[in-house]
Design a protein that fits this description.
The structure holds two protein chains of two kinds. By secondary structure, chain A is an alpha+beta fold. In chain A, 15% of the residues lie in helices and 28% in strands. In chain A, a hairpin with a 3-residue loop joins β8 and β9. Chain A is globular. Chain B is an all-alpha fold. The chains are: A alpha+beta, B mainly alpha. At the A-B interface, α1 and α2 of A face α1, α2, α3, α7 and α9 of B.
Chain lengths: 235, 160
Amino acid sequence: MTDLLDEMGERLTAAGRQWRAEQPPPAGVPLERLDDRLDRPRPWRVVAAAAAAVVVVGGLATVLTRSHDDQRSQVGTTGTPTTQTTPQPSTLPAVDVPWRDLPAGHPHVRHREHGKVVTRFDRVSATGTITGHLHPGDLLTFTAVIQSPTRLVLDPCPDFNVAFGRYSWNTWQLNCRQVPYRDGRNRPVLPAFRDVGFEMKVRVPDVRGDQKVLWTLDGPQQMPGFYGIVKVTAR
Amino acid sequence: MTEGASREDFARWVQPHLTVMTRYAGRQVAPADRDDLVQEALIRAWQRWSTYDPARGSAAGWLLAIVADRCRRHRSRRPSGRVVELVEHAAPPAQRHDIDLERAIAGLARRQRQAVDLHYFVGLDVATVAEVMGCAPGTVKATLHQARARLRELLGDDDD
């Protein structure tokens, strides 16, 4: 019976992780309305709809950038960087850690506890928004927002994967060295409940049509991650 | 602790907790109402910030308790006939995920569902769940154990 309950716990954990991965990012703090009186009707819907419209128009987290210094960040293509097709929005999630093209370290993060494979990253959640209209060879830029419910030392530093469409898959190491939070031994940490935004840059491979771009943290058996659909057209 | 603090100070203080507040609201009300509820909770938190005592609990626990209170008020303002609808809509991705599990969770007792939502879906550790629910961590563990057992019954896979 205990094993069966453990299975239910794992099922809940997986469902929760998937649910978190697909939640839209939170709205900001309404500074201008903090002194409002509650418990009386207010046009919340109008305000929320206006904010949502701003977010949609801005394209939220996905941008295309021209770059000449990230040639090694390609996923499945050797295309030359070219002009961007989507304007850079001003409502991106905060980037705490800049992009660095680091080869995968393949750290040993898995071990067994009570017969189960576990990692230190099992309760990490990852969210982000990936969307846009691109051409092959462009750079797709977005922010992977990672959060841990407990303070988590990033030592060893985990890898992450980006799948672009059905055939392109690449693995890099997170840029742990530039995480701005440290423990007493100067190791990078994810503070509890604090969103940490990692900038991502992915070269668009030579594909066409609507492509699913999937970001996952490597290590946990049920990898935390998120995905979005981007439209790729020929120039 | 917050004498003379500005709204910007409050915004910086609350920023690390916005994600869990939003997740928790998202588990309790319809998606269209989620951001409204979080904003109401933030206004309430700002107005009561001077009463927050870190010695009595974490900021996350305090803020989530305010979210829970606003969600309760929100549900009580609704006609009773719509409560079931709201519960069904509280987890929008369920259609693509484990819909049987989501339906079973909706059938749990209120405290069991609260514990499941906070621990498994919001992603809180047991100690913080206990702060939000106003009970001991051991009680949370027991409630989660009972919830898992009840879910197995509701899902029809109890082998006993």
